[in-house]
Model the fold of this input.
Amino acid sequence: MEFLRRFAKHRLAVVGGIFGILILLVAIFAPLIAPHDPHSVDFDSILVKPSLTHLFGTDHLGRDLLSRVLYGARVSLMVGIGAVVVSCLIGGICGLAAGYFGRAADMIIMRILDVVWAFPPVVLALAFVAVRGASLTAVIFAIGIVGIPSYARIVRSSVLSVKQKDFIMAARASGIGDIKIIFSHVLPNVLAPVIVVATLGSATAIMIESILSYLGLGMQPPASSWGLMISEGQRFIRTYIYFSLFPGLMIMVTVFSLNVLGDGLRDALDPKLKT
Done:
């Protein structure tokens, strides 16, 4: 395929995709890969340095850090994928309606989203979680709501371009209804930029979840969350750096992989670069 050939030329994106797949597999098979129970407390093994028994060491409660890091991948990917799904569905519908119908629909929808856009993403997510309470569902919806304006704007701009094409005019002239035109002709032509933004947005969602958990408004103990692990290890950073080092590295690798993957998808899907 032309898409795969062009994507393969972006070597860094290929590496990012490989790391992304590995992290996904780790999250799926964490119960089989993890050498210990991530919630098992062992007061005889508190803050043990990396060894053959505990490859990443243990935390302040004697829990195996490798196991908790592996299970933390589940939380991060659930938040990343869940938040993107919420943002895509709501933002996509808003963008389609605003771009295709225009006029009053465009004015009302985009002005409401401008209000959401005016708030810093992390602050808005903090406010939502503070009201709804800290839980996985609340974090997913909080981050998903933060991302709605971005997807709505991208879909709207793509629809405004596509709806002026000749095949859309022909579909209207033949008497096809607006809903069928949107889902059969408009939507397939605006998916490419949405896929790119969704890839980059999942990295942003993981970062925001880590920030919320670090501040105590995300995942709560004893959950295995990378941000929560960094927060718990903060007071031991001078004497036992491994506590925060390994979850921090996982956040860095995951976010970097998704970002370069998104860059590669953008270049491969950009019609201006086909020649």
